[in-house]
Amino acid sequence: MTAVATSTNRVIRDFDRPLWRRVLLTREFAIIGLLLLVIVVASVSIRGFGQPITYNYLLLDVAPILFIALPMTLVIITGEIDLSVGSMVGLASVVTGALVQAGAPFELAAIAALAVGVIGGAFNGFLITVVGLPSLAVTIGTLALFRGLAVGLLGTTAVTDFPEIWTDLAKAKISGTQIPYIVIPFLIVLAVFVIVLHFTPFGRGIYAIGLSKDAARFSGVNVDRTKFIVFVLSGLVAAFAGIFFTLRFGSARGDNATGLELQVIAAVVLGGVSVFGGRGRLHGVVAAVLLIGVLSSALRLAGVTSDVINIITGGLLVFSVVAASVLTWAQNLRLKRPVRPAVSPAP
Questions:
Q1: How many C-beta atoms lie closer than 10 Å to residue 57's C-beta?
Q2: C-alpha 125: how far from its chain's center?
Q3: What is the top-level taxon of the source organism (predicted)?
Q4: Phi and psi (nearest 5°) for 252?
Q5: Nearest to residue 163, comparing CAs of 245, 116, 101?
Q6: What is d(CA 347, CA 320) in angstroms, rounded to the nearest whole number?
Q7: How many other C-beta atoms are found inside a 10 Å radius of the C-beta of residue 9?
Q8: Sequence-ordered list of residues with C-beta below 8 angstroms from that of 141, at least 6 positions apart, any chain
Q9: Closest CA to 291 of 273, 317, 327
């Protein structure tokens, strides 16, 4: 049998290098190395960046992005996209605030917000898997729908009367450190997603769908059910991020987390997840989220305006996409070269 090499298929030549080179010389570890380099350079050159309190605020700032990036990775690996996560964060925030304002206990309000996230994710999944609409069109529509519902529920008002025990917990630090408590639930959720994506048949099905939906279906993968589940997870985690966002800033507003979906997608793509599906790993995504957060924090401390920060972040994203395409082209070109025989033929 002859193996045909494509941009997504793995052939024997992919394993002709030592294990350490296959593990370390990857895009994900390049992002990790760049993250460490930026931290070192910023700590040396920017006054105040190396302080523990800086890392505390940095982790609090990127926590919603870290959470949402996990299910977004699964969505994009399947070859789909979810642009509604930022609006879902705002809607969950408003639902929490509106119920608390109406006199409901905060715990009940948070459960209702999570239920709204599940319903919103299921609505996206239904339109994509059952109706057969493209995810880009569906989630652009629900981006506007969820944001409209959020603004319609509260209007221009903001709810700020939340129990202090919860608002303090959202900003609390682990005893004796400057690490916020939110890191603990994130590590638990991260472990769950790593196990599901990288060590279960469900995760292998996600990769298979991204590589080829038809091949995955013939291999026994329930494509529609898998996509439906990942969209429900995306809505659920976005709602949880919305609750944390509300408690962290102590305010529920209809315009909370506007534009957050672009930051999430930028981090996921920068972390090595292919926009065409079928490729990506969670450690690269987490490193990319932290890299964007570190860059933003360092540039703000250096006095750089937010517009320039957005330009730098966007340029980094474009460079990562172009670099990935160039590397894929170079690998395909190398694989198409004829292989010379190792031993000369006998006369």
A1: 15
A2: 18
A3: Bacteria
A4: -110, 115
A5: 101
A6: 51
A7: 13
A8: none
A9: 317
SS3 content of the chain, % helix, strand, coil (to 5): 70, 0, 30
Q: How far apart are CA 107 and CA 250, in angstroms?
A: 15
> pLDDT (tens digit, 9 = 90+) per residue, 243-278?
999 999 999 998 898 889 988 998 999 898 988 888
pTM of the model: 0.87
Tokens for 113?
A: 């917000």
CA–CA gap between residue 88 and residue 119 (Å, rounded): 11
Please list, in sequence order, all residues whose beta carbon lies within 8 angstroms of the beta carbon of residue 127, skipping any fewer than 6 positions away: 133, 138
Residues constituting the chain? 347
- The DSSP symbol for 139 reads H
Residue 219 and residue 204: Cα distance in Å, rounded?
A: 11
Structure tokens at 260: 């957050």
Q: Where exactly are the structural domains of the chain?
A: 20-335
Q: What is the pLDDT of residues 151-176, one digit of tens each?
A: 998 877 888 889 999 999 999 999 88
Radius of gyration, alpha carbons of the chain: 22
163 C-beta neighbours (distance < 10 Å), count: 13
Residue type, 191: A
The kind and range of the H/E element at 164 are helix 164-171
Q: Is 202 exposed, middle or buried (0-12, 13-18, 19+ CB in 10 A)?
A: middle
Q: Where are the beta strands (DSSP E) in the chain?
A: none
Per-residue pLDDT tens digits for 23-33: 666 778 888 88
Q: Is the pLDDT of residue 308 over 90?
A: no
The answer for residues whose C-beta is within 8 angstroms of residue 296's C-beta and 6 or more apart is 61, 309, 313
Written as six digits, the tokens of 72 are 């977004």
Enter the DSSP assignment of 307: H
Phi, psi torsion values for 83, nearest 5 degrees: -90, 0
What is 20-335's CATH topology?
Answer: ABC transporter involved in vitamin B12 uptake, BtuC (1.10.3470)
Q: What are phi and psi of 173, to 5 degrees?
A: -115, 150
